[in-house]
Amino acid sequence: MSEETTIETQELGEKIVTVLKTIYDPEIPVDIYELGLIYDVFVNEDNEVKILMTLTSPNCPVAESLPAEVEERVKSLDVVKDAEVEMTFDPPWSQDLMSEEAKLELGML
Fold first, then answer.
1. β-pair partners for 50
2. pTM
3. Rounded CA gap, 32 and 45, in Å?
4. How far apart are CA 19 and CA 54, in angstroms?
5. Is the CB of residue 31 less than 8 Å from the CB of residue 39?
């Protein structure tokens, strides 16, 4: 992988994070990225994206719609060839995964 490809991949990763920060958990007024629901974002040299994410609980009311929304929003970026969301509950989400910003927003600090 060339240095140029690495920079492009990194820039795409940042664009993806920007998109993820526009998606909110319906029950908590904080975006899914700051909540710590996104465990990992993988981008290969073909600009295919795989996102490993979780939900606040397996019984979350948006268990079906939220991953689909994440996938669609990421696919809407011009440079993304394809996007796939993989759900995991290992490790289970906890408040420890939230950013300082999210904790502050929710009055937890």
1. 42, 84
2. 0.90
3. 26
4. 17
5. no
Identity of residue 80:
V
Per-residue pLDDT tens digits for 12-27: 999 999 999 999 988 8
Structure tokens at 80: 């993304």
- Detail the DSSP E strand segments found in 1-109: 38-43, 48-53, 82-87
Cα 29–chain centre separation = 16
Half-sphere exposure of residue 97: CA atoms within 13 angstroms, side-chain side: 19
Closest Cα to residue 73, out of 36, 29, 18?
Answer: 18
Q: How buried is residue 69: exposed, middle or buried, by Cβ count under 10 Å (0-12/13-18/19+)?
A: middle
Residue 39 makes CB contacts below 8 A (sequence gap 6+) with 52, 53, 54, 88
CATH number of 3-94: 3.30.300.130
| SS3 label, residue 40 | strand
Task: Return the amino acid letter for 91.
Answer: P
Amino acid identity, residue 59? N
Look-up of token digits 């991953």: 67
